[in-house]
Design brief:
With 181 residues, the chain is an all-alpha fold. It has one domain: Hypothetical protein, domain 2 (Endonuclease III, domain 1). 61% of the residues lie in helices and 2% in strands. The chain is built from 10 helices and 2 strands, in the order H-H-H-H-H-H-H-E-H-H-E-H. Helix 2 runs antiparallel to helix 6, helix 6 packs across helix 7 and helix 8 packs across helix 9. The longest helix is centred in the middle third of the chain and has 21 residues. It is globular.
């Protein structure tokens, strides 16, 4: 499951807001846990979060929050769940201002992925000045449970940052896609 995710999805440039919202929810839920735990629960998250439809999730009230907290298929951390509901509303506000959440994020890198040149996993950072800046802006916009490490994971997952190792076949594939882009 993890290998398939890496080989087909992680680091691929994303312009679809539904996918961006999905990763915001999943990356926040992952904090303090392993990514494989989240991947195993991904379908349950998808069902619980209305297919990652931020507009529907943004309308979730106390009843839906309690249903999420009782859902053994997802991460049942109250602060993470409450933040996801707030973040759905903030996500829509960013869309209203920028036309899409993707356009907002990609605007930080002028629409071109940042390419890491890593030879080993130990070189790959967990946060950068870019993720610090975006996290700060998101917090000013009222997003919750979202720091620089979560943002950096999001940037990596959605291809805004290409942090595949130079020896990885995906590194070269994504460079080629971005050159054609």
């Amino acid at each position: 499951m993890y290998e398939t995710y890496h080989d087909t999805e992680w680091g691929t440039p994303v312009w679809d807001d539904r996918i961006h919202f999905e990763f915001l929810v999943l990356e926040s839920a992952q904090a303090g846990l392993s990514w494989i735990t989240i991947l195993r629960k991904r379908e349950a998250f998808r069902r619980a979060y209305a297919g990652f439809d931020w507009e529907k999730v943004g309308r979730y009230g106390e009843k839906e929050k309690e249903i999420l907290l009782a859902n053994a298929g997802i991460i049942r951390n109250r602060k993470k769940i409450e933040a996801s509901l707030v973040n759905a509303r903030r996500f829509q506000e960013v869309r209203d201002q920028y036309g899409s959440f993707a356009r907002y994020l990609w605007g930080f890198v002028d629409g071109r992925p940042v390419v890491g040149h890593w030879k080993s996993l130990e070189e790959v950072p967990s946060r950068t000045e870019l993720s610090d800046r975006i996290a700060k802006d998101l917090k000013l916009r009222g997003f919750q449970f979202i720091g620089s490490v979560i943002v950096y994971s999001h940037l990596q997952a959605t291809g805004i940052v290409n942090d595949h190792l130079e020896t990885c076949f995906r590194y070269r594939e994504l460079l080629a896609i971005n050159r054609r882009g």
